[in-house]
């Protein structure tokens, strides 16, 4: 069970702070059942969710875990997801998002980026499905990394790129 003040990942909502644990006095709530009151970190609102929900929840990663994940980015082999059937491609992306794992989010982002570079050489653009899932994955990853690394969300992309560049330069001089 989480504690008041904990920052957690809650389903596809992303990073939320546990504001309260108890029985909220609002209509539609099952009386006598404990609920988390969650506040999303990067959007306004309140979420009331039973503490025994089956919706995915986990503690946010630590700074050390985020930095370790970043060191692994150059070694993530993605390939390019090529499929003319957008439904199959969409299902693949949804499976990666559903793990709520930062490495899977990076895999999704990198594979779409590689696809984008490939189609760009052909004078084309990636499809809306690719773009939609890239944005979702980036938002989830950047939200969690922002909190873990204690930097503004708008700086996460630059932080990752700079860190990866230093890593790849360092490996070339070995």
SSE blueprint and pairings:
Blueprint: E1 7-10, E2 14-22, E3 35-40, E4 47-50, E5 57-59, H1 63-72, H2 86-98, H3 102-121, H4 128-149, H5 156-172
Antiparallel strand pairs: 1-2, 1-5, 2-3, 3-4
Helix pairs in contact: 1-4, 2-4, 3-4
Describe the structure.
The chain has 174 residues and is α+β, with helices and mostly antiparallel strands. The chain has 2 domains: 7-59; 63-172, Up-down Bundle (Methane Monooxygenase Hydroxylase, Chain G, domain 1). The protein is 47% helix and 15% strand. The protein has 5 helices and 5 strands; from the N terminus they run βββββααααα. It has helices spanning 63-72, 86-98, 102-121, 128-149, 156-172, and strands at 7-10, 14-22, 35-40, 47-50, 57-59. Strands 4-3-2-1-5 form a 5-stranded antiparallel β-sheet. Strand 3 (35-40) and strand 4 form a beta hairpin. Helix 1 packs across helix 4 (128-149). It is globular. It starts with 6 loop residues before the first strand and ends with a helix.
Name the descriptors.
alpha+beta; 174 residues; 2 domains; 15% strand; five-stranded antiparallel beta sheet; Methane Monooxygenase Hydroxylase, Chain G, domain 1
Proportion of residues in helical segments: 40-55%
Count of alpha/pi helices: 5
Mean pLDDT: 90
Shape, please?
globular
Q: Strand portion, in percent? A: 5-15%
For the largest beta sheet, what order do the strands appear in spatially? 4-3-2-1-5
Query: What's the CATH topology label of the largest domain?
Result: Methane Monooxygenase Hydroxylase, Chain G, domain 1
* SS class: alpha+beta
Radius of gyration: 19 Å
Q: Under the CATH scheme, which class of the largest domain? A: Mainly Alpha
The tally of domains stands at 2
Number of E-state strands: 5
Distance between the first and last residues' Cα: 46 Å
């Amino acid at each position: 069970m989480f504690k008041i003040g904990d920052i957690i990942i809650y389903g596809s909502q992303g990073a939320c702070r546990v504001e309260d644990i108890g029985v909220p006095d609002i209509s539609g709530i099952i009386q006598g059942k404990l609920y988390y009151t969650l506040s999303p970190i990067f959007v306004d609102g309140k979420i009331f969710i039973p503490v025994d929900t089956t919706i995915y929840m986990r503690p946010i990663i630590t700074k050390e875990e985020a930095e370790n994940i970043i060191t692994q980015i150059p070694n993530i082999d993605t390939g390019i997801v090529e499929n003319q059937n957008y439904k199959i491609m969409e299902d693949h992306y949804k499976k990666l998002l559903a793990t709520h794992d930062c490495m899977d989010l990076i895999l999704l982002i990198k594979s779409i980026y590689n696809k984008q570079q490939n189609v760009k050489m052909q004078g084309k653009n990636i499809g809306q499905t690719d773009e939609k899932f890239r944005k979702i994955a980036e938002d989830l990853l950047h939200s969690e990394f922002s909190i873990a690394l204690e930097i503004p969300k708008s700086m996460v992309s630059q932080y990752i790129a700079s860190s990866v560049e230093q890593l790849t330069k360092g490996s070339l001089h070995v």
